[in-house]
Hints:
Layout: E1 3-8, E2 27-37, E3 40-50, H1 52-59, H2 63-89, H3 99-128, H4 132-138, E4 141-146, E5 152-157, H5 160-172
Antiparallel strand pairs: 1-5, 2-3, 4-5
This protein binds zinc ion.
Amino acid sequence: MPKSIDIELSQLKFPSMCVVCMSPASKQYEVSQVYSRGTGSATVRINVPMCNSHFEAASAKNLAEKIVATCGVIVGILIGIAALILLIIRWVPTGNDSVILKLFIGGIVGFGAFIMVWATFEFWLAPMFATMASKEARNAVRIVLVSPHAETLRLEFMNEQLAEIVQRESQRS
Ligand SMILES: [Zn+2]
């Protein structure tokens, strides 16, 4: 059963054991989460300890993931260019229709379209093609909730026992 715990970020302390298999850890794997802060968004990152083999599993991308991620870049560029062209063709005259303005706004819209397509492939589609071992290692600890100023995190652990150890370690400090 996964177990969630709330912990103050400044107090967060992991034992020196792999979050997947609990054997001695030798590597740190970065887990990050984007959260909304006021009008914008920010990213919170934590390092979780892993043994060599689980670190490899979490970091390594298999061929399918790499292909999907590359497709994301290509499709993103094509859609970005299409958005730019479409915007210029369909430009509604505003009285201030300099080529530079059209290209500038078209560029922003095109770049935005690229980012949306690329991010969808990179962060949503590609991870679906990860191997079971990769998914297991990457999801061993997840940040499920971030308080408005990132003082407190809710972490979800796949390993209930480890969640309890982290909670104990973090309270002691
Ligand atoms: Zn391990």
